[in-house]
Please model this.
Amino acid sequence: MDYLLIGLGIILMIAGIAGCVLPLLPGPPLNYTGLLLLHFTSGFHFSNRFLLIWAIITIVVYALDYVIPVWGTKKFGGSKQGVWGSIIGLVAGLFFFPPFGIIIGPLAGAVIGELTAGKSSGAALKSGFGSFIGFLTGTLIKLIASGIMTWYFARELIFG
Model:
């Protein structure tokens, strides 16, 4: 049973890192689940405090991933249409122009959303840039959290 939990944990760690850049996979929650699976084996354990701290970090990072791009778009003068355009552009870019669509999609979507809202091209580009910066910031935060959880997983697995 331990081998199954460890194997699933490794798969979740890999999927969690991938989920930091693929919007369809919830990166940090997958990494945290991998930590829990390793914890539930007979040979590897994390303290309850460690697990609680990482549960809180995971929840905060997951929530920030939705808030930061919206904040970035609004901070640079974006509207709701720009925010929705950014979200739609992200999904469309992922499917139609991988892997670069994940970066270009939110930017283009926010610009198109702002243009449909009647904003000038300069204001639309500024909003799109804010969406792009917000997306990159959220992705970086997810990668940092997931990378650290993966490091703890590997350290515990190797050095037990």
Summary: The mean pLDDT is 89. The two ends are 17 Å apart (CA to CA). Helices lie at 2-19, 27-39, 48-75, 80-96, 101-116, 121-159.
